[in-house]
Amino acid sequence: MNQPLRIIVVGMGARAMIYAREALLHPELFLITGVVDVSLNRIRTAQRLFRIPDDHCFTSVDELTAVPRFADAVINGTMDPQHVSTTIPLLRHGYDVLLEKPFAVNQKEADLLLHCAEETGRIVMVCHVLRYAPFYREIQKLLNSGEIGKVIHIHMNEQVSYFHESVSYVRGKYASPELCGSGMLLSKCSHDLDIMAWLMKENLPKTVSSVGSVIQFIPEMAPEHAGTHCLLNCPAERDCIYSAKRLYIENPQRWANNIWHDIGTETPAIEEKIRLLHNKDNPYSRCVYRCGLKIVDHQSILIQFADGATGTFSMNGGASASGRNIHITGTKGEIIGNFESEYFTVHKIAPGSPGGRTSRIIDVSKDQHGNPHGNGDQAIVQDFLSILRGEPCSPCCTTLADSMVGHKLVFLAEASRENSGETRRY
């Protein structure tokens, strides 16, 4: 038990690399001893970084499971539609799995994976990393303490920034169910609905309804005389907020790095970036209004819980900045906060106080340090290692059955949206 755990990475993409790099910081806890990826370039990168021998490198899960088990567990960072098909053979081969979210793209797949985990007795821990962020951990503690009483309503909202929206959900690989296996609600917001279900604890959902549509990224919203590609034939490019040159060259934001990663060029020079964006076959230079978007750009959900409490969630793509907001109303007070601000406010009913209430601020900035996931990526790896060692895990730890609640909410919400907001029973 004092030896470092041995971990294999299946799908060495950006998310899996974040988890794997923790091995370089904590080699006394775990080592990356194998890699599976369809890209030989990513395999070679992993080999150099983690000193993986040739006979522990594979291009498919079938190849990996054809050899005797040589590690304790697997980090599965494959694309969403591959999560179940790759995890089931790993479980049957004796590996425990840290699985990127969403763990399945439909209810049938989710049920198959849950059945396999129960049948094999293996661990499947889903990467709901936001549970580990101090912002949400402190809110959960406060709710559990009963300080604001019984929850009446919980409202959550995710604003998806215009630059993240354009990179990932309009021009990128998550823009179509054919590409990513699901709609935007699952690929972007399974974090949020998992958080809502987690905060409501054993108070399970009872009914779900949802509406949403594409209202922004359609040809009718394009600037006058707009072309089909920003850098090839668009006279409106200089005035367009979604100009590929403006977003990805002149003012590159965080998500612009995904472009070069997705097209197989990790760190191109400026000249190479411009050349790539001039390529008519590069999806990232397409006009956002002419991409034929097949997923929604905004959606709202209404949930009724078993005890009569309600929850609402809204996702809005194309916002001026990214942001996650939460407002919980209880019988004795309220919690109001914004994840990115790294603090939330607790208001308590107090008839004898000026204004009829007391207020205090809970500041988590010293723990989150502006990290996009509140250091949850690192904390979940530590929790997974604890589980593998048979040690106590944190209150944030999720079993596959726990994760099923938030995922089922998404599946039911999508079914409702596709049927004009028809209410679905949980």
TrEMBL record:
Residue ranges of every copy of the Gfo/Idh/MocA-like oxidoreductase N-terminal domain listed in the record: 5-127
Organism: Diplocloster modestus
Designated name of the protein: Gfo/Idh/MocA family oxidoreductase
SUPFAM superfamilies to which the protein is assigned, alphabetical: Glyceraldehyde-3-phosphate dehydrogenase-like, C-terminal domain, NAD(P)-binding Rossmann-fold domains
Residue ranges constituting the GFO/IDH/MocA-like oxidoreductase domain according to the UniProt record: 136-213
